[in-house]
Each structure stands twice: as structure tokens, then as C-alpha cells.
């Protein structure tokens, strides 16, 4: 089936003194919108073109005159000092050590003895304020009556005096001696009024702008640099930068109790999304999200009153606008745009509800770190497109785009050619499947502490980056993002309060013991455990990957609280005196049919052993790595880890169908070569076979009713066929 040639659905960046070249690329790429970027301005002539104009709009940064006149409004956060060991009864802590003093400074304006906290970490005790003193000139705290050889820390309120994104761009692109943008806090009434007045003036002065691209609203995700100008702490989901004394007071009034500095510092973990969220932190996230939605709606209403669209960038200052949360719909946005790093982040954007359209910003960003002599932007673009394309076939974004300096990209003809291909192929896909429900063989529930609130966001640390202790699990998200299954994200609280939803065929619990994704202490709740046991026994499936349902150190004599469902448990070192006789691995099994052994478990999970009645499908070094276990009328399946690869994506699909006892339907709209995939759209009478590689591939495609056909694909090809095709 031929690709249709269309234009539009593409946003590209531009800059001053680049009018003619921009016009040429608009025509070549079929772009229908242009945008500015951080550090660029649109050429005046571009504003006369028949394309949509996006303008980046910063709400709470880039207004140093206001921030300097109102220093009390500068944004702040809680930070923890280095851990210092007392060697005597007096110890001095230089709490700013190893922090970047161009980014943060201590907040001495609000009484440190009221809003700071000194903690004896060895005894897990707060040091009385009468036992410590502050020397602001040296940024030190001195503790008296210290316990020798106890560790101490200072949790201090610090001001953010350099916007993290502007700082990152500044340091990355060597912008030199330009003023550092100071972020200010919308929590203050004078800041709220300034933000509204400034936006009204800007809207009146820029009548030609069609789309106001809020980048984003008020609070940046947590990004702190060290004294060597390197990243020290990053949490793309972190609420650390939302703290202020007015916020703490308002929280106490709304929620009825007062927060401590430790509620934010959290032993130095800063409530990362890997931590099982405390009740206090959940309450705080809810409190901030409601406030941000209320304030953002005011600005969106102003944009609409001016006859323009309001778009939000899913990044930078996006904290409090979680798009799967309860208040996002109240903001009234027209669109969301986000950065696409892989299939998972594509689905994170494309599945967002309550907006008219979504847009994905593809890589590479047109910055000198890629677009330089000897650089290979085409290679990065290919990888980015092929990984994201899998997810587009399940749920496309409505638009794609790029960001950065167009002048740089235009110097690479091969890259210009590849973007032409990407834009054309995206528009062709969209024209065929937009609004069409794709075939799904199963409905899968991903079970963790966050549930729907952080749909498609488990295992993210920094956006789209790989981490040693996460890649073995996040492969599950990447596989699911492009597979022929429906995916729902459920929290433990959802299960205990409402049971497992009726449409779920299989539950997946994946992650390391004690994390929010495995569940930690949530598994101490008998209601959670018994609800899932009864549900599996009734004929459903449970897939555990890594350390599912695990409580570190055991609980009630088990590490895996659903060990009876999974047929395996993890040795914690307490039952070494009890002999464990591993069942012999089965010779052939549906789960590994056609796969290349040994399987890749990433970092794997160690010390897991099987029960006598469990089917061991794979094992290594006296540790089981893949098992199946009948439980009542249902099944439990265990896997030691799943980094993303085409074969592992195929393995996961097998695990889910097997656990759900639907293996007889597995070969429906299915490709036997893991480097290829099938996406079917029965309502449109179409299906597509994808080659997800840059090499030729041959595969056998199973359609329905056992029918099959051999397909040979060119590199990166999508082969479209009609479902009524005669074989």
C-alpha cells in the first residue's frame, strides 16, 4: 500500500536572520508551524508566513527586575548537608559544601531555627534548636553536646537563584557572561499579580502568535548541581522546588498538620519516585497540584480570551501539572508537547487526556553537542524514530516537532533528508490510524504505589536516560508501549479499595524490593494480598519481575508476599538451614519457544528458589530465572529481569498471554521475528508489519484463524496491507 503524501502536523524551530532557509525547510518538510527555542527569537519575516506561530513563554523566569525587587519571592527548596561525623562533643557542619553556589544560596530570611532541622542520623533524633548555632558568614552550623562518632546533618532551606533549565543550557552551550535567570514563586500574591499583568501585556504585544507554549508554569523538577558544575541530584518527578514558607503555612491550614524539613529531605532521598510515598508526601503532592492547577487556569483563560491556544511543555517547570492527576483537566489546556526519548515517553505524551492534541518533540535537539564536525545526528534520529514509532502505532501523538537551532541542522544534508522521511512517514501513519482502535489481545494492569497518577512513568530518573539499577525493569514499560495490549496503571490502594478491575487479564508487578514499584510495606496489608490471590485463583494471571511483592528482610516468613502465587521466593539468609531442592528445568515450554537462549535478565535477581510444584523454565547458578506456577484456575509467572530488547519484548508478550491462560490466542496479529512487529486495525480494515531495524528482515506474520504469510521487509519499512488481503 502506497504512502500518502501529505503536509502539516510538524513544528520546526527557527531563528533570526534565517528567513529564506526556514522557508525552504518548511516546504521540504511540509511543516505547518514554527517555534522559537530557549535562547532564540523568530525572524520578523517569519511572522508573515502562512504557518502557525508558537512562542515559548516563561512564566516564572526571565524577569530578574521583579525577582531582585522582591527577593522574598525567590523559589526555594530543602537540601541536606553532607553527613559529618562528630569526633568530640562539638561539631561544625559546612552545609553548603559540594553545592553549586551560583545555583543556590541559604535562605536566612526565614528564621532557620524555626524552618531548619539538625538531625543526629545515627540516633535518628532531631537535635534541639538550643544545641546548635548558625554562622551565616561561613554557611556553617555548630552543634554542641554532640555524641562522639554520631553522624549529623543539617536540613536547610535554600533559595534557587538560577533557573535549572537556563543554567543547564548555559553550561552546555557555553553562553558566557549573560545574566542568570532567577526563578520566583507564584505562591506570593505580588508574584501572582505580576505574572498575570505581564502575560496580558505580552499577549497584547504579540497578536501574531497563535500558540502560547508555556514552558511550563511555575515549578521546575528537582535538578541540583554540585560545586564542580555537575549534576548532583535529579528527579524528573521531584516536587522539591515547590517549597516556601507560605506554602508550608497554607498546607498546615488545608491539611491540618505541619510538615517537617525531613518530610522533604527524606534521609537524603528527597522523595524520589522510587521511594514508597509517605502519607505526608502524598498529601503534599496533592496540595501542590491543586494550587498549580488553580493558578495555571488563570493564565490559560487569559490566553483563550486573547484568541490564542494554550500549550504546555511536559518538562522544565511542569511540577504540579501531572497530566494523569485529578486536577489537570481543570487547567483547560489545548495541547501538551513533550520530549520523546523512546516508546515509553511517546506513550506518556500521546495518552494524555483532556487536551485537543498532543505533540512529540523528537531527537536530536539541534544543539552543538550533536551538530558539530564529526557528529552523527542521523544515527540518533534513526534510533529515536524507530523506537518511538512502535508506540505511535498503538497511540499516535497528533503532531511531531523538533527544537534547537535550525541553523545548525541545516548544515547536515543527510539529516535534512532523514527528517523529510520521518515527517512523511508520520503523516502517513496518522492519516491511516488516528482515532482507530488498534487490536489488543489482552488488558494488562501495571501495579505499583503510584498507579494512574504516573502513567508510563515508572523507573524514570532523568527523562529517557538509562540507569544501572533501573534498566532491568524499565524494559517492561518500553516493551508494553508498542505491544498489541491495552495497558492500565493501578495502585495498591486501587486494589484494596475496589478490587482488580473486571477488564484486567493479567497484573504485572515489577521492580526492586522496597521501592514504590515493587511495593515495599504495602504488601503487609492482608486485604491487598488476599484480593490478588483470590483474583488469580479465579482464572487470571500475575507476572512478577525482579523482586515482586517483596518486603526486604521478610514479613511473616516470606520475602515475596505472593510467593504462593508465583511458586518462588527469595532467600534472605534466614532459612539457609532449610534444604531447597530445585525442580529440574523443563525441556520445552511456550514461554521460550523460538527464543535464543540464554535469556537476558539485565542485572538479574539473585537467590530466588522454586517450590517443588513450580515449572522451572530457565535457571542459572542454582538460581531460577523464569518459572510458571498454576494457582487455582490461574497462573503466576516469575522472571528475574527484563531490559528492553526485541527478543525480551517478545518474551514479555508470551509471559502475559501464558499467565492469562490465553496462549491459544497468542499467534493473532503476530510476527515471528522479534525484530518485526504487527499492528492491526480491524475497524479500518488495515494491518501493518514493521521492521524496527536498519537492516532487511524476513518474518512470518500470523493474522487470524491460523492464517500466516511470509513477509520480507526493507530496512525500517512499514508494510501496509488490507485485512481482507487474499493469501
Automatic annotation (TrEMBL):
One Pfam match, given by its short name, reads: LBP_C
**Domain Lacto-N-biose phosphorylase central span(s) in chain numbering:** 444-663
Taxonomic superkingdom:
Bacteria
In this chain the Lacto-N-biose phosphorylase C-terminal domain maps to 669-720
Query: One MF term from GO for this chain?
Result: 1,4-alpha-oligoglucan phosphorylase activity
Q: Where is the Lacto-N-biose phosphorylase-like N-terminal TIM barrel domain?
A: 8-439
The name on file for this protein is D-galactosyl-beta-1->3-N-acetyl-D-hexosamine phosphorylase
Organism, per UniProt? Schleiferilactobacillus shenzhenensis LY-73
Q: What is the lineage of its organism?
A: Bacteria, Bacillati, Bacillota, Bacilli, Lactobacillales
Amino acid at each position: 500500500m502506497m504512502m500518502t503524501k501529505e503536509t502539516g502536523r510538524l513544528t520546526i524551530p527557527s531563528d533570526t536572520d534565517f528567513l529564506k532557509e526556514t522557508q525552504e525547510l518548511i516546504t521540504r518538510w511540509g511543516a505547518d508551524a514554527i517555534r522559537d527555542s530557549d535562547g532564540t527569537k523568530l525572524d520578523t519575516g517569519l511572522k508573515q508566513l502562512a504557518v502557525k506561530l508558537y512562542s515559548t513563554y516563561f512564566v516564572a523566569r526571565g524577569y530578574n527586575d521583579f525577582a531582585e525587587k522582591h527577593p522574598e519571592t525567590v523559589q526555594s527548596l530543602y537540601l541536606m548537608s553532607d553527613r559529618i561525623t562528630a569526633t568530640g562533643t562539638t561539631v561544625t557542619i559546612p552545609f553548603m559544601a559540594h553545592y553549586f553556589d551560583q545555583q543556590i544560596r541559604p535562605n536566612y530570611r526565614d528564621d532557620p531555627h524555626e524552618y531548619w532541622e539538625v538531625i543526629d542520623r545515627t540516633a535518628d533524633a532531631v537535635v534541639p534548636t538550643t544545641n546548635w548555632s548558625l554562622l551565616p558568614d561561613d554557611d556553617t552550623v555548630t552543634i554542641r553536646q554532640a555524641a562522639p562518632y554520631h553522624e549529623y546533618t543539617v536540613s536547610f532551606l535554600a533559595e534557587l537563584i538560577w533557573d535549572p533549565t537556563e543554567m543547564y543550557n548555559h553550561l552546555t552551550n557555553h553562553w558566557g557572561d549573560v545574566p542568570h535567570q532567577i526563578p520566583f514563586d507564584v505562591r506570593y500574591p505580588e508574584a501572582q499579580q505580576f505574572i498575570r499583568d505581564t502575560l496580558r501585556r505580552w499577549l497584547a504585544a504579540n497578536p501574531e502568535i497563535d500558540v502560547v507554549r508555556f514552558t511550563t508554569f511555575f515549578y521546575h523538577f528537582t535538578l541540583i548541581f554540585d560545586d564542580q558544575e555537575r549534576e548532583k541530584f535529579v528527579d524528573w518527578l521531584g516536587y522539591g522546588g515547590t517549597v516556601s514558607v507560605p506554602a508550608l503555612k497554607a498546607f498546615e491550614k488545608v491539611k491540618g498538620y505541619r510538615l517537617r524539613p525531613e518530610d522533604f529531605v527524606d534521609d537524603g532521598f528527597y522523595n524520589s519516585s522510587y521511594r514508597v510515598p509517605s502519607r505526608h508526601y502524598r498529601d503534599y503532592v496533592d496540595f501542590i497540584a491543586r494550587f498549580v492547577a488553580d493558578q495555571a487556569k488563570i493564565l490559560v483563560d487569559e490566553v483563550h480570551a486573547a484568541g490564542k491556544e494554550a500549550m504546555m511543555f511536559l518538562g522544565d517547570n511542569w511540577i504540579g501539572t501531572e497530566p494523569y492527576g485529578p486536577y489537570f483537566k481543570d487547567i483547560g489546556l489545548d495541547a501538551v508537547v513533550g520530549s520523546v526519548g523512546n516508546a515509553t515517553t511517546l506513550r506518556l505524551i500521546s495518552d494524555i487526556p483532556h487536551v485537543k492534541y498532543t505533540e512529540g518533540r523528537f531527537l536530536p535537539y539541534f544543539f552543538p553537542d550533536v551538530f558539530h564536525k564529526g557528529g552523527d545526528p542521523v544515527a540518533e534520529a534513526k534510533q529515536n524514530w524507530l523506537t518511538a514509532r512502535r508506540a505511535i502505532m498503538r497511540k499516535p501523538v497528533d503532531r511531531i516537532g523538533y527544537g534547537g537551532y535550525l541553523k545548525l541542522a541545516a548544515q547536515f544534508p543527510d539529516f535534512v533528508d532523514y527528517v523529510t522521511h520521518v515527517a512523511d512517514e508520520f503523516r502517513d501513519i496518522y492519516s491511516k490510524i488516528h482515532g482507530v482502535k488498534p487490536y489488543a489481545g489482552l488488558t494488562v494492569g501495571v501495579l505499583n504505589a503510584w498507579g494512574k497518577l504516573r502513567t508510563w512513568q515508572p523507573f524514570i530518573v532523568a527523562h529517557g536516560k538509562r540507569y544501572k539499577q533501573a534498566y532491568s525493569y524499565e524494559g517492561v514499560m518500553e516493551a508494553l508501549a508498542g505491544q498489541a495490549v491495552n495497558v492500565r496503571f493501578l495502585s495498591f490502594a486501587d486494589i484494596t479499595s475496589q478490587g482488580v478491575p473486571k477488564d484486567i487479564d493479567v497484573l504485572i508487578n515489577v521492580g526492586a524490593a522496597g521501592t514504590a514499584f515493587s511495593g515495599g510495606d504495602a504488601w503487609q496489608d492482608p486485604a491487598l494480598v488476599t484480593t490478588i490471590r483470590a483474583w488469580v485463583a479465579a482464572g487470571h494471571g500475575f507476572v512478577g519481575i525482579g523482586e515482586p511483592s517483596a518486603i526486604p528482610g521478610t514479613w511473616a516468613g516470606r520475602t515475596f508476599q505472593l510467593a504462593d502465587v508465583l511458586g518462588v521466593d527469595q532467600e534472605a539468609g534466614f532459612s539457609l538451614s532449610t534444604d531447597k531442592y530445585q525442580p529440574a528445568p523443563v525441556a520445552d515450554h511456550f514461554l521460550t519457544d523460538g527464543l535464543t537462549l540464554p535469556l537476558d535478565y539485565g542485572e538479574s535477581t539473585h537467590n530466588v528458589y522454586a517450590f517443588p510444584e513450580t515449572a522451572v523454565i530457565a535457571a542459572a547458578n542454582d538460581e531460577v530465572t523464569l518459572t510458571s506456577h498454576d494457582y487455582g484456575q490461574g497462573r503466576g509467572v516469575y522472571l528475574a529481569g527484563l531490559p528492553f530488547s526485541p527478543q525480551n519484548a517478545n518474551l514479555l508478550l508470551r509471559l502475559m498471554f501464558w499467565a492469562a491462560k490465553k496462549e491459544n490466542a497468542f499467534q493473532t496479529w503476530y510476527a515471528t521475528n522479534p525484530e518485526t512487529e504487527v499492528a492491526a486495525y480491524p475497524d479500518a480494515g488495515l494491518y501493518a508489519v514493521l521492521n524496527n531495524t536498519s537492516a532487511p528482515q524476513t518474518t512470518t506474520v500470523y493474522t487470524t484463524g491460523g492464517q500466516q504469510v511470509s513477509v520480507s521487509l526493507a530496512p525500517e519499512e512499514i508494510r501496509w496491507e488490507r485485512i481482507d488481503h487474499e493469501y
